[in-house]
Amino acid sequence: MLLVAAALVDAGCGSSTSPTPAPAPAVCTFTITIGMFPIAPQTPGQGMVWTTYFAATILPSQATVYVVDVNAAPSGCLTAWTAVSTNTSAVQLSPAGGSGRGQVELFMPANLGAQRSTDVTIAGQRAAIMQAGR
What we know:
Elements: E1 6-9, E2 18-21, E3 29-36, H1 50-56, E4 58-59, E5 64-73, E6 80-85, E7 92-94, E8 97-99, E9 102-108, E10 116-122, E11 125-131
């Protein structure tokens, strides 16, 4: 749904005012990168594309928190996005969405069972996240 605000312009004495449409907000393209990460034997570089890191890494079984950055272009874009985990007992996300630029905390509780995997989608970009078992 696109909302367009109208501004009234004073055209001078004796003339009527007419609405001038405001420019529509820019549509975003998103890049999801790792912003902050735990200190562990395997730590990604800050700014690394999150799908690249999680595709190549089986995370340890202990509880872990990552903060991922939702980078939006062009500057000032307001497109809404969501953050969804297909298995919230394996990966919890907060917040569940936003608009434009933002951050999402990705929390993995300790895994006391077998290795597990879940899909996480943030701003339309999906990554399969695997966590080792005990």
